[in-house]
Structure to design on (309 residues):
């Protein structure tokens, strides 16, 4: 399995993981790796079935059960089984309060249902809670800001971006960059001028424009370069993605061909002022957006004029 993964055959690796977690449903590492792979493959069916199938072999007495419940919550949320998802996710947090993924999964349930006040309340944690955490804490901060955005609290979301989300390290990872680009783009679509925040983001994250290994990251970098109006850098990235996608074969090359290449072309046209060409290009790829991976929250650019309960 690891040889397949290292060789770039992620689909074959996913099938190997599936065999492992079927035969050994208490292999927590295999469950987690299969879970993460399914997210970046844009496969909610795999996300749901892998962990929920294993649930019969887990209960509260088994160490690590809370982590499994948190993953099951995410899988069920992605296919609309919100009630069971929330029940498992909250139980997961009770059993494993340090598992950020379980907290994150419950936040997805509330976002998907438009329960903005519940979501804002759920995300409240003492500042000390985040000390020493992994980059996943940044994604949870993004979820908190997303609840503010969807409640039409644009000033609050922008302030939160400046105070917590804006990268401070010299070379942030793909997750931090994607979080920032995603929130700023939503704010721009809602009519908010994010000003120099785009250029500041690019200055911190320019190194990620050279990484072809993750389509999810490439999509967000393309958006960031476009919004920062860095046309030359966008054209270079577009050409490099096209060259990478041409040989085909691996999942990432296929995903690049299906979504990154047309998105880069559309955004290049947008910068040139040819909005019709940009629209036409995006329409050709509209049914392929799942190739970028992520969750159904990636598709949410809505905002609401009031906080729902």
């Amino acid at each position: 399995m690891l040889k397949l993964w290292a060789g770039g055959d992620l689909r074959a690796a996913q099938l190997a993981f599936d065999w492992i977690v079927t035969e050994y449903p208490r292999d927590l590492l295999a469950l987690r790796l299969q879970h993460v792979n399914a997210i970046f493959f844009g496969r909610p069916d795999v996300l749901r079935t892998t962990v929920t199938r294993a649930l019969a072999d887990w209960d509260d007495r088994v160490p690590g059960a809370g982590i499994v419940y948190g993953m099951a919550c995410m899988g069920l949320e992605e296919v609309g089984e919100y009630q069971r998802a929330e029940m498992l996710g909250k139980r997961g947090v009770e059993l494993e309060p340090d598992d950020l993924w379980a907290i994150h999964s419950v936040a997805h349930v509330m976002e998907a249902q438009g329960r903005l006040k519940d979501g804002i309340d759920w995300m409240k944690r003492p500042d000390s809670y985040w000390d020493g955490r992994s980059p996943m804490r940044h994604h949870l901060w993004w979820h908190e800001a997303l609840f503010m955005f969807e409640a039409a609290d644009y000033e609050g979301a922008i302030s939160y971006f400046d105070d917590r989300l804006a990268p401070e390290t010299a070379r942030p990872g793909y997750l931090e960059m994607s979080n920032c680009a995603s929130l700023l783009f939503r704010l721009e679509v809602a009519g908010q001028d994010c000003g120099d925040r785009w250029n500041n983001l690019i200055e911190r994250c320019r190194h990620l424009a050279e990484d072809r290994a993750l389509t999810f990251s490439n999509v967000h970098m393309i958006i960031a370069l476009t919004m920062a109006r860095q046309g030359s850098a966008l054209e270079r990235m577009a050409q490099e993605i096209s060259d990478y996608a041409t040989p085909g074969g691996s999942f990432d090359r296929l995903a690049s061909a299906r979504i990154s290449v047309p998105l880069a072309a559309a955004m290049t046209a947008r910068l040139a002022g040819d909005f019709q060409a940009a629209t036409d290009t995006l329409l050709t790829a509209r049914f392929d957006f799942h190739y970028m991976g992520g969750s159904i929250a990636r598709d949410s650019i809505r905002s609401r004029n009031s906080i729902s309960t």
Summary: The chain is about 65% helix and 0% strand. The longest helix spans residues 251-271.
